[in-house]
Design a protein that fits this description.
By secondary structure, the protein is mostly helical. Helix content is about 75%, strand content about 0%. It has a two-stranded antiparallel sheet. Helix 1 packs antiparallel against helix 2, helix 4 packs antiparallel against helix 12 and helix 7 packs across helix 15. It is elongated, with a radius of gyration of 26 Å.
């Protein structure tokens, strides 16, 4: 896919063009905010905050959108250019159509704004939180680490809040919940993605007649995906337009999936007929589902995560225009546009780096694996919403990619161990053809048949001590890049503390500048 990316990753000289375009967007926001702030008493701080909000939105586009389209690009279902176009359109549409008219100013109620009675302190706090979160995201993107934008803004609000109102202002039980989500999200995402991949391997890939198996199984997988995405969009994607309770969302999702199943069955049968009976042929059946999932995940992400950029900005606008500190603030259309356009521009200019990281640098993804990651992303959010857990879409998607990679390592190690065992037991044989034939038959066999063949072999041949020793040494091939695992885990752990400390420092700086 690196060839397809050429249109958007230009040579080094183009770095300047990219920064230039980003700068132009920020200048445009500055001028627009200036026009909106005419006649307001604290106009200058509103204009500064609008610039911070635009910068934050661009960083969300650069860092966060990779989770929605990375697997589709890494597996070759989408080229980099088409992924960026689809994601930019659907992110912006999600933000504008379903981003809501009111936003929580303080993400997830981490601090209690009632304890800040000074309106100026509240405005500085929000501005510091926005800038700190954006700076940390910028750094993480530069390091090639996909991190949670929600956790970044949570850290920013927490740090600046403590700086403004002392330790008592923080909602520590809420913070504990968010910290728990760092572990729960990726683990759950990884387990669900690996489970689906294992099901696909058992029921389709390891079958002699893969086409017939695919005709039977793939419509069911697509129906599960339709159910998951329909429920996810009803719960998360349009919750600001209309609030469905979880049970009815899941129920409606089920009805949509049942209807779509009737449509998928003949369609997959027709497509499968045209494929060859290989792994690659089966992979092709997952192209369209991946494209749809990239679009729908982007829509839901735009609807949810635009608030990370514009929530604090809307809070500042409310405080400046109406002189109130509110937990919920109305979103003027211009602020919503700053968020939506910022995400799309940040994605187009700086998105390819992390799309590559998620899509191909952690582990090799084909379309089946990418499908499992996308499916895990939607299902995990539904489960978490049901349990009332705050989860991060970034952590889920990246966890899914790791889960798929580690399952492949496990299965490959098992297979290699079996082959080594066959070779060890045939060590005495003078007939290499017989060994070849056995291995070929083993390769073609289903999992159940393989078990039976190994059992039979163990009965017939007794291993000598020397052979047994050799067997223990089968080394595992690493299919997941460990350096990526450590880098991403480290970035996740420090997200809240780093953006928190940054925000506290920025709060004191802004206060120092603004106080007469």
């Amino acid at each position: 896919s690196s060839m397809n990316a050429t249109t958007l990753t230009l040579p080094r000289g183009a770095e300047l063009i990219r920064f230039g375009l980003a700068f132009l967007f920020i200048i445009a926001v500055l001028m627009f905010a200036n026009w909106q702030a005419v006649g307001l008493e604290k106009a200058s701080i509103l204009i500064i905050a609008a610039v911070f909000g635009a910068y934050m939105a661009m960083n969300i586009g650069a860092n966060d959108v990779a989770n929605n389209v990375g697997p589709a690009v890494g597996s070759g279902a989408l080229t980099m250019t088409s992924a960026i176009i689809i994601a930019a359109i659907f992110e912006a549409a999600g933000a504008i159509i379903a981003g809501g008219t009111v936003t929580g100013t303080i993400k997830k109620g981490i601090i209690d704004p009632a304890l800040i009675n000074d309106i100026d302190a509240f405005i500085w706090l929000m501005a510091a939180a926005l800038l700190a979160a954006a700076l940390w995201l910028n750094l993480a993107t530069w390091m090639g680490a996909p991190v949670s934008t929600t956790h970044s803004i949570v850290g920013g609000v927490l740090g600046a809040g403590i700086a403004a109102g002392g330790w008592a202002i923080a909602n520590w039980p809420k913070m504990a919940q968010i910290a728990a989500s760092w572990v729960i999200s990726p683990v759950l995402g990884g387990i669900i993605a690996a489970t689906f991949l294992y099901i696909i391997k058992r029921t389709i890939v390891f079958q002699p007649d893969k086409i017939a198996a695919a005709k039977r199984i793939v419509p069911w997988l697509l129906a599960i995906m339709t159910w998951a995405f329909a429920s996810y969009l009803l719960l998360k994607g349009i919750k600001k337009l209309y609030k469905f309770d979880p049970l009815s969302a899941i129920g409606i999702g089920f009805v949509i999936a049942a209807v779509m199943f009737m449509f998928f069955r003949p369609m997959i049968a027709r497509m499968a007929e045209r494929q060859e009976n290989t792994r690659k042929g089966i992979n092709n059946l997952f192209t369209w589902p991946l494209i749809f999932s990239a679009a729908l995940l982007s829509f839901a992400h735009g609807a949810n995560d635009v608030a990370n950029a514009i929530g604090p900005l809307a809070g500042i606008y409310d405080a400046v225009a109406h002189g109130v500190i509110s937990k919920k603030a109305g979103i003027p259309l211009w602020i919503m546009l700053v968020g939506a356009l910022g995400i799309a521009i940040g994605l187009a200019l700086f998105g390819p780096k992390l799309i590559r990281t998620v899509g191909s640098e952690i582990t090799q993804l084909d379309k089946m694996r990418a499908f499992c990651v996308a499916l895990a992303a939607a299902i995990t959010v539904i489960i978490a919403t049901q349990l009332g857990l705050p989860v991060s879409s970034t952590h889920i998607a990246v966890g899914g990619v790791f889960g798929v990679g580690f399952l492949r390592e496990f299965l490959e190690a098992n297979y290699r161990r079996s082959v080594e065992e066959i070779l060890a037991r045939h060590a005495e044989d003078k007939d290499p053809q017989a060994v070849e034939r056995f291995l070929e038959a083993f390769e073609q066999a289903t999992l159940a048949e393989r078990k039976a063949m190994l059992k039979q072999l163990k009965k017939e041949k007794v291993l000598k001590k020397k052979e047994r020793k050799k067997l223990k040494k089968v080394h595992k091939r690493q299919l997941v890049r460990r350096s990526m695992l450590y880098r991403i885990a480290a970035a996740w752990v420090i997200t809240v503390p780093v953006s928190g400390v940054l925000a506290a420092l920025l709060f004191f700086t802004i206060r120092g500048i603004m106080l007469p």
